[in-house]
# Entry
Amino acid sequence: MKTAVVTGASSGLGTEFVRQIPEIFPEVECLWLIARRREKLEQLAAEVPEGLSTLCLTLDLCDPMSFAALQERLSAEKPELSLLVNCAGCGYLGRVGEMALSDQCRMIDLNVRALSAVTAMALPYLPRGGRVLNVSSIAAFCSNPRMTVYSASKAYVSSFTLGLGEELKARGAAATAVCPGPMRTEFLDAGGITGNSRTFELLPYCDQVRVAGGALRAARAGRGVYTPRAFYKFYRAAAKLVPQQLMVKLTGT
Ligand SMILES: NC(=O)c1ccc[n+]([C@@H]2O[C@H](COP(=O)([O-])OP(=O)(O)OC[C@H]3O[C@@H](n4cnc5c(N)ncnc54)[C@H](OP(=O)(O)O)[C@@H]3O)[C@@H](O)[C@H]2O)c1
# Structure
């Protein structure tokens, strides 16, 4: 069955991906929704158009046992993956020497380890024409002091996606990294960012509905990177031209 798998489907950008997949990937017959909050996943599943089946998988992707559960499900169902969206992610504000170690590890476990593991497990089921869409961030363009671990984790996501995309060419598939600027989602409160970062107060915000649509279209077209908004396209270009040692003096959060 032609399937789309979305991690982090229970809120924010992930929910928007699920809402827009039926329009942009109309061949998809089944949606797998992954996150920890079952109730939210079930509410979303109830919204999908008739004729599209859903499977809600309540998994904590920071727990390696979740990989075994997903692996088992993939082997049992053998889906044909039209699309994998790795959207689950978290970002905590704070200096490396001051913030809780558990928060630092959670960012690495979810943004780096889980994203890589889910992708590796999904690839055997990705056919010719299949798409992987990884949610990176503008934080990937240059290190962001006070979000140093987060920005390093997203630099990994962008680098991983670039290499993966090249590997997938041989089998006629593609990988896309989407790099949004700040969005008004639960991410801001969960990460202790709300009210604590002047940078986040000043930056232009991205609308997650538009980001999701643009990213899905970019994935469909097989583009390697998609950066929403002209302001952040300019920032991405500047971060390539200006030495990182200089950039990092301006990119603190
Ligand atoms: N918002 C921004 O400003 C911004 C900017 C650039 C990039 N991003 C990226 O966009 C992506 C989506 O974030 P968002 O803004 O939509 O934030 P969000 O509303 O907080 O969504 C995060 C999603 O990840 C899931 N998640 C968190 N921990 C998990 C775990 N341990 N296991 C499984 N799922 C987990 C959450 O579901 P449960 O809590 O139900 O598990 C939720 O569905 C992230 O990768 C983030 O880094 C966000």
The chain has a mean pLDDT of 98. The pocket of NAP is lined by residues 8-14, 35-37, 40, 59-62, 87-91, 110, 135, 137, 180, 182-183, 185-187, 190 (CB under 6 Å).
